[in-house]
Design brief:
single chain, mainly alpha
Length: 182
Amino acid sequence: MPKKKQKFRRTDAHKYSKLGVRRKKKQVYRKSKGIDNKIRLKMKGHLRNVSIGFRGEKKKRNLVKGLKAVVVFNLKNLKALSKGEIGVVGKIGSKKRIEIAEYAKEKNIKLLNLNPEKFLEEIKKKNEEIKKLREEREKKKKVKDKKSKEKKVKKEEKKEVEIKEEAVKHEADVKENVEEKK
């Protein structure tokens, strides 16, 4: 049966939020250096101090699920994985992440922080939603364009009617002026 891994905490970590109360990222070990510090003095009933003898077996050290973790940033890194290694997808963009997920799904490669099937399904759903939104925008645009064209046509028709009316009035005025002169 494997040894239980000892958790080492900073002095007074249980008292302050900034030292890790309900904040895992802040739970960082620091050596206690106080003159009367009970942890440094290795007094009974207090937290354990880091010392020789707590380290794990050399064979099992730095293994994740019994495999050596290798950070993957692109397809080349993923293809270079050997049998006793597990891929950990690094901080990369969605384009490369999709490539990695597809390749891992094809070759049945294990990735620690990425489930290829689930990830690819989510991407498909997002793409479908984006397509729907684009189609809706295009429909709205077409409707707006039709309305604006109709308005333009109506304005042009009104202008033409006004111009014809003005021309008719002008002709009538000219005729009246000619008749008055006679």
